[in-house]
Amino acid sequence: MIAPLIRALGRPLLRLRYRIQFEGAESLPVPGRPGVLFLASHPTLVDPFLLVTALHGRFAPILVAGRDHAASAPLRWLARLLGFRPLPDPADHGDRTRQVLDQELTALAGHLTSGGNLILFPGARLARQKVEDLADNSTVASILRQAPGARVVVIRLRGLWGSRFSAASGRRPSIGLELLKGLGYLAANALFFMPKRDVQVAFEEVRDLPLAEGRQAVNRALEARLNADAAPRLFVPYLVWKNHEPRILPEPPRPRVEGNPRAVPPQVRDAVRRHLQAVTGQTDIQDPQHLVRDLGLDALGHRELELWLQRAYGYPCSDPASLQTVGDLLLAATGAAVSLRQGELKAVPHAWFHSPTDLPIDMPDGDTITEVFLKQARRNPGRVALADQLGGVKTYRDVLTAIMVLKPIFEGLEGSHVGLMLPASGGASILYLALLFAGKTPVLVNWTAGARSMGYGLDLVGVKQVVTVSTLVSRLDAQGVDLSAVKHRLLLLDEAGKKISLATKLAAAFRARFNWTSLQGAKPPETAAVLFTSGSESHPKAVPLTHGNILANIRDAAQALHFRQDERVMGCLPPFHAFGLTTTTILPLLLGLRVVYHPNPTEGRMLARIIEAYHATLLVGTPTFLGGIIRVAEDRHLESLRIVVSGAEKCSEQIYATLARRWPKTTVLEGYGITECSPVVSVNREDDPRNGSIGKPLVSVEWAIVDLETGRRAEPGQPGMLLVRGPSIFSGYLNPDVESPFESFEGRDWYRTGDLVRQDRGVLVFAGRLKRFVKLGGEMVSLPAIEEALSQRFLGEDETEPLLAVEAGVEELNPDLVLFSVSGIARDEANAAIRAAGLSSLHNIRAVRQIDQIPTLGTGKTDYRALKALLAEAEV
C-alpha cells in the first residue's frame, strides 16, 4: 500500500520545486517482449524517484540501484519500499562479488527478455561533473549481450545539475539533511510559492549500439547521447522574495588526489603495485597509467580497489571518483584521498573577517609566553585567534577554555618534559600553551627524523609521554613512518578526551568567561620549548629555547615586518620546525593576529584554496613548500597575499620570478634563521626588499662576519663566517657530548652559525653552509653555487620542486662531485651550464646519478645526509 502511495504522490511533490517538461515521451516504444532498458544520466539523488513516478504507470520498471542509493538510511528505506533492485557490493559479498554480480546481471537480462523493463544508471554513481563518465561501465554490455533484441532508451536529465541533491558542490549530498532543509524552504514559501527549477527529461530510443565492438565502444556511444547539450551548474533561489533569477555557477574542480607519487614510501609503492598486478594481470605498472583505460578495471574492480585500500591502510576514500591513475592509488594509500582535498571548503564564519580598528597590533609586556598570552587575550576575549578546517574558528575565550580543560590532565603526566607530536593546526597551538600552563616543557617531536633520532632525542631530555592524536598515528603508520621509538610513550588525546565529563567542560567555559585565577597563578617552566636540529648533515642536537629567547625574537620580527590590524596569517609549517613554532604558532597568539592552519605543507592546491577562502594576507613557508603552492595555484587563489616570508633555505629565482609575474602585488621577504636563534636572525624589509638577499639582521641581534683565514672581520663584500649574539640566542645544547657552538671573538662570546655570508649594500647575502663547501685543488668549492647554476639552466620558471642536488663523494681528499637528478641530466650538459655560469673547472661534475626523487626532510630542506648514505652504499 505504501509504495503505490509514494508513486502517486511523487510527481505532485516533485512539482512543488521542479517544473518538469518531458521530451520524446510520445515516441517511446510500446511495452512488450522483449522489454525496455532505460539508461539515464544521474545528476542528483532524486533522479530515481522522478523517473519511477514518470514511467511507472506505463512501464512499471524495476530500478537497478547502485551504491549511492544504499549509502544512507532514508534512501535504503525508500529503495526497499519501491522495489529497487540493488547490485551486489564487495563490502557485503567479498570475494564472491563478481560471481554474484554475474548471476544478478543474468537475472536482469532474463527479466528484459520476458518483457520486463529496467531503469539503470550506467555511470554507476552520482555524477561529479555535468557530463557522465562511463569508461568503467560493464553492466550495460553484459545485460544486452544476454538479452538480444532488448530495446534501449536513453534518458537525459537536464536542469538538475547544481541542485542541493547533486554533487555539484564537490561532495556527495546528505539526503536526509537536504530533505529537512527542503521542508523548511517549502514552509517558508507557503508551500506553493517556492521558486521552481526547470527540468527537462528527454527520451531517445537507441537502435545502433555497437555491441559487437565491446563494452568500451558501447560506453562511448552512450556517453555521446547522455552528454548531448549538457546543462551547466545552475543555482535556483529557495526563497521567493530573494534573488529570484537563477544564475549559473562555476563547475566544481574535477576530483583529484593531490601530491607527488614519487614521495610515496617504497614499501607502500611495492605493495600497491603487487596488488594491481594480481588484479589486472599486467606486470608493467607505471604511475601515469589510467586505472580504467590502461589497466581495464570496471566499476566493480574500482570499488574492490577502494575497499582494499581501506582494509590494507585504514583510509576510507572520501570520493572514489578521484582515484583515476596508479599514482592516485599510491597517494591514497598514504591517506592523501581522505578529508578535504575534493569538494568545497567549510564556510568561513563572518567573525574571521571582522577586524576592530581600535585593537593595537603589538605584543604586551611580559617575561613569559603564558603571561603575554593572557594579557593579549584580556584585551578582547571574544576576538578570533585561530582557525582550521577541522576545528573551525576559535576565539581567545575558546582557547582559554580548552587550556583549562587540558591543564589538569597535563599536570598529572610523568616528568618535567612532555613530547608534542602534531602538525600545524589550531589544536597544536592550544596544546603547546596548555603544556606551558601545566608547568611542562614542550618537546617538539619531528616524526620525519627517523626512529633512531626520535628515540635518542626523547631519551636525552627524559620524555616519558608524547601527546598526539590517533588520526596522525594511523596516517604515519600507513605511510611507513617508523614510530617504534614513541609508540610506548603515546598519549592519544582524542581517546583521553572521551573521559572528560560535560561538567568539566562547562566549568572550564565558566572560568574562561569569569575567572582566570588558575591560569594567572600558573608557573610555566624556564624552558619554553625543546627542538631538535634538522639533521640534514649530522645527527640532531637538542636545542632548549627560553621564554626570553622566543619573546625577543617575536618582538624583533614585529618591528621588522610592521603587521597590520587586518592581517590574516596562513600557517602550514609543523611546530617541530623552529620557523613554524615561533612565526605561525606563538607569534600570532601573542600579537593578536588571526592565523589559519593546514596540517600538510606539501598539499599545494589545498593551501592555495584556503588562502583564497580565508583571504590570507601573510604566508610563511620554506621555498620547497612555497614552490608547491605556486605551482598548482590559480591566479585568484593568491590575490589576497600581501607578503610571502621565505626562510629555512635559499629562495630560488624561479619562485621570485613566478610571484612577480603572476602576483605582482605580493612582496617576497626572504629571511635567514637558525633553530638555535629562535630562529629568525635577519629578514628583508617591506619598504626595501632585495631579491636574493637575506635582508638586515633583527634589531637585537649583534653580528659579525669573520674571515676564515685571518680570524678578523671580513672586508665589506667578502664572504666569511657569521657570528651572532643577543637575547634570542640559546644558551647551549642539551647533548652532553656535543662541542660548544660558542667562540670568543673581540673579547666576547658569540654563537658560530656555521654559515657563510657577505655584506652587500647594507644587507646580508647568504653564501652557503661551511659544511657544504669542499676543498679541491686548494680552492673552496661551493656546492650550493653549483646547484644554483644547474637550477637556472635546467629548471623551468614554474618548476619549483627540488629536482637536483649536488653532493661530494665520500673520499676525504679531492672527492668527486656527484649530481643527483630526477630528470636525467647528462654530465656534459651539466658541466657546460657550470662553465656558462662563470664557475671554474674545479666545479665540474664527475658523476651523475638519476633517482626517482630528491630526498627531503620534514622541514622541506634537501636531505644531504640521505644523499651521502647513497654514495656510501655505492662504495661498499
Description of the structure:
Residues 36-160 form the Phospholipid/glycerol acyltransferase domain. This is Phospholipid/glycerol acyltransferase domain-containing protein. The protein is α/β, with parallel strands linked by helices. The protein has 28 helices and 34 strands. Helix 1 crosses helix 2 (47-59) and helix 13 (369-379) runs parallel beside helix 22. The radius of gyration is 31 Å and the shape is globular. The termini are far apart. The model is unreliable at 339-343 (pLDDT under 50).
| SS strand fraction | 15-25%
- The radius of gyration over CA amounts to 31 Å
**From the 3D coordinates, which CATH architecture of the largest domain would you assign?**
3-Layer(aba) Sandwich
- Summarize the amount of helix as a percent range: 25-40%
Q: How would you name the CATH homologous superfamily of the largest domain?
A: ANL, N-terminal domain
End-to-end C-alpha gap: 81 Å
Q: How many distinct beta strands?
A: 34
Envelope shape: globular
CATH topology of the largest domain: Rossmann fold
Number of domains: 5
In terms of per-residue confidence, which ranges show pLDDT below 50 for 5 or more consecutive residues? 339-343
User: How is the largest sheet built, in terms of strand order?
Assistant: 11-10-19-18-20-21-22-23-24
Average predicted confidence as pLDDT: 84
Tally of separate helices: 28
Counting copies of identical and different chains, the oligomeric state is: single chain
Largest sheet: 9 strands, mixed
Structural class: alpha/beta
